[in-house]
Amino acid sequence: MQGVLPKDIIELTPNVYTEPYWLATAEHRLILPRCTTCGTYRFPPGPFCWNCRAQEVEWIEHDGNGTIYSFTVVRHPVIPEVAEALPVVAAVVELPDTGGVRLISNVVDCAPEDVKIGMAVTIDWYDVRENTTIPVFRLAGG
Questions:
Q1: Does 142 score more than 70 pLDDT?
Q2: 87/98 Cα distance (integer angstroms)
Q3: Where are the alpha helices (DSSP H) in 9-128?
Q4: Which long-range contacts (CB under 8 A, 24 or more apart) does 44-52 make?
Q5: Could you state, in order of their start, the residue ranges of all structural domains in the chain?
Q6: Whole-model pTM?
Q7: How far is the CA of 118 from the CAs of 24, 40, 106, in angstroms?
Q8: Distances from the Cα of 127 to the Cαs of 2, 27, 58, 112, 135, in angstroms?
Q9: CA distances (Å), 6 to each of 27, 37, 53, 88, in order?
Q10: What is the pLDDT of residue 56?
Q11: Average pLDDT, whole number, for the chain?
Q12: H-run or E-run covering 129
């Protein structure tokens, strides 16, 4: 997969609020926490709803289709271990029907010059190691 960081530098540190999200990604599923009191999606996951301050959530499955809200192309290896992976397209992807939830991830297997704000993307999965999977995105239809 082109445009992803080397597996040996990726280390997740889930907590009680993010663990359900990361367990689902290991199964190639995208789930998002939604407040059971007011229905607001709470991403990134945290202890309180930013809208009503309730704590209870339900985890809602999302298909991972979205649009590029913003992006940048990383071309300079600030960390020497990533030099071979560059260029990397780091993007903010907005997910529809979530009240504005945005994920930060990579757009993979494309030329950086092909990426534009507003483009449709689909989710894919970068299996880093057993039980560690990172969501990445691909240009839709490409």
A1: no
A2: 30
A3: 19-26
A4: 44/18, 45/17, 45/18, 45/20, 45/21, 46/17, 47/17
A5: 7-139
A6: 0.94
A7: 27, 24, 15
A8: 13, 10, 25, 22, 9
A9: 21, 40, 38, 11
A10: 97
A11: 96
A12: strand 120-129
What separation, in Å, do the N-terminal and C-terminal C-alpha atoms of the chain show? 14
Sequence-distant (≥ 6) Cβ neighbours of residue 106 within 8 angstroms: 3, 4, 5, 88, 89, 90, 91, 126, 136, 137
Sign of CA dihedral 120, 135, 71, 139: negative
Average pLDDT over residues 1-14: 94
Residue pLDDT, tens place only, 49-74: 999 999 999 999 999 999 999 999 99
Q: Which amino acid is at 10?
A: I
Q: Identify the residue whose tokens are 């998002």.
A: 32
